[in-house]
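Regression test attached.
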Amino acid sequence: MPDSNGASNFIRDIVLADHAAGKHGGRVVTRFPPEPNGYLHIGHAKSICLNFGLAQDVPGGVCHLRFDDTNPTTENPEYVQSIQEDVRWLGFDWGKNRFFASDYFERLYDHAERLIRKGKAYVDSLSADDMRTYRGTLTEPGTNSPYRDRPVEENLDLFRRMRAGAFPDGAHVLRAKIDMASPNINLRDPVLYRIRHAAHYRTGTAWCIYPSYDYAHPLSDAIEGVTHSVCTLEFEDHRPLYDWVVAECETADRPQQIEFARLNISHAVMSKRRLLELVEKKLVAGWDDPRLPTIKGLRRRGYTPEAIRAFCDHIGVGKRDAVVEMQLLEHFIREDLNTRSPRVMAVLKPLKIIIDNYPEGVTEDLDAINNPENPAAGTRKVPFSRMLYIEQDDFLEEPPKEFFRLAPGREVRLRYAYIIQCTSVTKEPSTGRIAELHCTYDPETRSGASQAQRKVKATIHWVSAAHAVSAEVRLYNQLLIADQTKLPAGHDWTTYLNPQSLEVLTGCQVEPSLKDTSPGSAYQFERLGYFCADPDSKSGSPVFNRTVSLKDAWAKIHKVKGSR
RNA sequence: UGGGGGAUCGUCUAGCGGUAGGACGCCAGCCUUUGGAGCUGGCUACCUAGGUUCGAUUCCUAGUCCCCCAGCCA
């Protein structure tokens, strides 16, 4: 069923059909089940939008937030905290339905003993290496472990002693007794429990055996009454095992696993392993570095939850591997910010100009439109005075044919102000670099005045030198790698990172209205792009992160396109 | 050469028996107190080969290619 934009969501179709047919008694319960071993990224956003969206699609639908914390060595409370913040920030609410797989450890254990009694699970004492050998290969069947036929009582005794801490790590595991000859390797007696003498961030040292994903996940779903358990494609092979666990444990609820294709974004580092490596090697400032596609990184860049949700809605939910272009994500943040972000003037690389015929000590407050797309945003006053800054790129001493901005003798309009003419160029004696420009202005050309309609070939932005606020601007690129899916074997992927991923511009001049900007708010700097006042900046002066440039703005500026 | 999935514009994605639509992107033009935004027009696709059919992207058959699986990770 196509949504407003035409993107498909086959899982929604299934859920809607099940709901209409009265399956599961008409209940719809989904869950977002992150392992708290890292920060959430845009790929998780797809899953979050999907699962919470499904619950919203039917009356009475609910979506749980469940932490799949069955591996004590990788998980910690910081991640739990950040995950919750991000889900909320994205605009979703799990209400009272926050769960932890670790809360089910006792019940999971009970079910395991029952499986043993049913003869459906056994304690294996093979080493990890031997177990691998016995498992066979993709093309050859496995072999039964010599421990496979241990009597139930011995299994029970061993398993209880495993729990009691009688054995070191790796001495034994609990395995499901299914079929060592199955063509599906996941069914060749998968491990249900392993011994790990490690402290868990929630259960401490209460346990030294921990359930595996394949055992804990389906059971946790069933315990919570989840009806539709949505996961990614790589778990398709696990579905028979998922169903086996649910069936053999004879739970009241029988959840259904449905798989979809995970999100890939071109040129973005999306694997948790790599993100963690970037953070740990301090190649980025942290999980919230604006160069990362983490939710927190996107937030610092000025991405809005609305834009991310619209993006997730647009890309659809299917089963084919797909790589979405970064430009599509950027399109959605532009579209969103275009309607809501105020336009302001800022000069990233200042060039001082002096209006020689403008009186000294005089300041005019000129009216500027806050958002042409939204008249309700109103206007603001921008101070104008004798000494101004313009963008270095807006002046060329020897302009080529196609350059229509300021040059010696040339006229140009200052946005919301006057038409000025460049009369002379002053250079630094030592370096020969341009120090400042002298200009004259035409008083009749002020906005609204008699000559205001006079046409000139270009309009440029500016700020008053005496009133401007000095700011730091950080131009972030995404961290690029050559091809995230086809990294040559044996290469250190970090060598593929974009070396120009961060450019810090100090001494930028922004209009005074930005002096006390609220953290996290986004602006459109005229012609320069969208910028977000860094939500977490500790600096005294304003710091702006580039959200995304105006569409192709940089390329066009440098192309010095011809007349308009 | 085992099993499980998947193949429609450059990219995502509709159509599921009547010869392909949308979005991103790109190109051209219009407009503009910035070249942004907006507007107009254009661009390129049904994996291959057979078959069924008046007619197939849609059905059948055989291939091809891509992805996933041999953690006591999730």
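Expected vs. actual: identical. Residues 42-57 of chain A form the longest helix (16 residues).
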